[in-house]
Write a structure and sequence with these properties.
about 230 residues, alpha+beta, Aminoglycoside 3'-phosphotransferase, Chain: A, domain 2, four-stranded antiparallel sheet, about 50% helix
Length: about 230
């Protein structure tokens, strides 16, 4: 079945696959500070999707099923070097880009350390929720890109939002939001760090592959500062 038709089946009716609104990429921090609960309400709706027909973890393949049996397999195979796709032999980037082996391995190992807290966390996630893929629609937010939809820990969507906008303090605001809503989120800090390191390293690898040094530097700074921010919450 067509992916869009399946998404409409899984997602609540309130989520449109073709939203019309203002580009959230242009939002100022002052505006976000006022409206972030509405942002978070919309993102939280994604995890209410019915995924009873889906098995495993990771991005959906051509068969519209996740491709990995466990969360650990999902995150480790993402960074395998023998993939038969764009990322075949990607570790050569350590010699040709500003992404160093030492930096990658440090945060890859941190990701693995925290990964046990994300095992068995299975939710439908957009998995690509950067502000450029969000539109503001009155009192809510819409999502314009579902190409990387995945089954994994729902905190990955908030980690995506935080990666390029650490000054928006998204995990800090999210913790307060969850407390105010009475939503219990076990091991929040550990799960957020795992998802943020996973997404951060994946995005860093992409920018390294296209020799985007400016973005690489920004992402590396964001990754480097994250643990202190989260553990001090």
């Amino acid at each position: 079945m067509n992916r869009d038709k399946l998404l409409k089946q899984w997602l609540p009716e309130s989520i449109s696959l073709n939203p019309i609104g203002d580009d959230a990429e242009k939002i100022w921090i002052e505006d976000f500070n006022e409206m972030y609960p509405k942002f978070f309400d919309s993102v939280m709706e994604i995890q209410t999707a019915d995924i009873s027909s889906l098995r495993g973890y990771g991005e959906l393949g051509d068969d519209n099923q996740p491709q990995y049996a466990s969360f650990h397999e999902f995150i480790t195979e993402t960074f395998a070097d023998d993939r038969e796709d764009y990322w075949k032999n990607w570790r050569e980037l350590f010699d040709t880009s500003m992404m160093t082996r030492e930096f990658f391995e440090m945060y890859y190992n941190k990701m693995l350390y925290y990964s046990k807290y994300c095992e068995n966390q299975r939710y439908l996630t957009n998995n690509n929720l950067f502000f450029g893929n969000l539109v503001i629609m009155n009192a809510s937010v819409g999502f314009v890109d579902w190409d990387r939809v995945a089954v994994t820990d729902w905190l990955i969507d908030f980690a995506c939002m935080d990666l390029h906008r650490p000054y928006f303090q998204i995990p800090e605001k999210l913790m307060l939001y969850l407390q105010e809503k009475g939503i219990k989120t076990e091991n929040f800090k550990e799960r957020f760090l795992c998802m943020a390191y996973y997404k951060g390293l994946d995005v860093l690898r992409w920018h390294a592959s296209i020799q985007d040094d400016v973005s690489c530097k920004t992402i590396m700074e964001s990754i480097s500062n994250l643990e202190e921010r989260i553990l001090n919450l």
